[in-house]
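Quick illustration, no need to memorize.
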Amino acid sequence: MENGFVLQIDYKNENKILDILNSDLFNDCLKRSFILRRKQLKNYGKDWKLYEVDIIKGYIFMEMIDLDLFKKKLSKCKEIFELNNHNKIRLVKLQKHDLGFLNKFNSTVIDNSTGDIENGKIVVKEGPLIGKEDLIRKVDRHKRLAFFNYKFSFDNYDICLGLEIKNKTV
């Protein structure tokens, strides 16, 4: 992803705003737009079900073709303004480290990872968290989640991704 931007909007209507951005109205100025999501397993009784959950609520990531044309079209699109509860929409250019972070996962929906805890250290065996063990600051083995903090250029975030720990050795 190059020439990346993030649009800060009201998270309650982010899917509706994303649909507008992906419509024909913005085709000539946006290459793609997406909400960064992760897959999460949730336990209901005896069954584990897979859901998609927003990682960062209220932010739409975009790859821009023409920034000036996008701003012009955005200012004329009253529906986005109304869906955002008449609040100001914040557009921020993503820095190189943000783009690098997003490119590491190579997807708009991040899959679950699996791994082990060996001698007190997390070792990821499968999934997008391979090689990123040093970012993980906490693991919830019961909810199958890994937590880490990441400082984007637009804000500092606690992010959680799916991580199932299969074995633990001391």
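The domain at 1-107 is CATH 3.30.70 (Alpha-Beta Plaits).
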